[in-house]
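Researcher: I'm preparing a figure for a lab meeting and need a structural model of a single chain. I don't have an experimental structure, so a prediction will have to do for now. The sequence is pasted below. Please return the structure as tokens so I can convert it later.
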Amino acid sequence: MGAEGIQVEQLDLLLDRESLYNLRPVHGFMILVKHKPEAISYTLNDTINNHIYFSNQVVHDAYAMHALLNILLNCTTTIDIGKELNHFKQFTHDFPPALKGLALTNSHVLKQVYNSLSSSSINQHDKDIYHSISYVKSGSHLWELDGLKRNPLKLGLCNDNNWLDIAQMEISKKCEMYSKQHLPVSIWAVVEDKRLVLQRKLIGKDYLKKEIESKLDYYQPEWRTTMDFTRWEEEYRHAMNNERNKRGQILFTKLLQNYCPSFDQLPSEEQTSVKSVLNTKQEDIMDTWLQIQDDSLRLFECLGFEDEKQELYEKNHLQRQHDYMPFIQSYIQALYEEGHLQHLITNS
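Model: Understood. Here is the structure written out token by token.
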């Protein structure tokens, strides 16, 4: 849809605080509930809430896109949503929620995106129906954007430090309610592209490594000539030969060309956090250097894993788009003509 630097991650239904905080930066959450939603009465005269973008789930086919847009269009200060979505938001700004929902289904650009992600072999009547609910922090409040309600719901006060805790509590309560009704539910988070997050962390680790080595060169000039240093470097190089680590290193180098090329390009709060590590006591500085080496290996591995995931997503996307029916028909026809079809049917 043109939004840059984000990805969507499915979460475990048993939300825990540590897992949520490891996802940061988080832009919002989505709950998708598998059931046939009850019909609700929409009206084009509903009150427009200009503090938050909210649209009704008028057509149920595009439930995931609907939930995603209710997050993206409320995060335009933290996400580059691109030209098309910016235009769509401005065009529908003064529409009531129901009309916003209808505009989504009538947008040529969004219909193209939806069709490109839909399997051509799935019968329209066989598609599952879902009810989507989004959660975002806007201003100083957490909001619930339920597409089957007439208006957004303000859940409570929050800030950048505690909104994930409040969202966890609200989402857990909602999932528990659906569980008691035996309705299948899944939770998704809209987060910053993890490859970019990991690349920035590696930039910070590289900066720390060089700064600590500079200190060691000054205070312990002979430190590089020790047996331990030689062994540590050999172990590090050996670990970097791991296929996933090598993949992560290649991606890291590629990202340097287009994204964050140096420590000076990191956000100021990230620079401050990294520099605080340099206050390590002199007697602990070698341990800190070793920890940075270990952290870097783990980050390269994570970066390689994220690259593998993206490659798998692209393959799945191509497979989902492909129409296998002509191949299946030709294969069955060939089996029939070669005299194998009846035998396979009989023995099946």
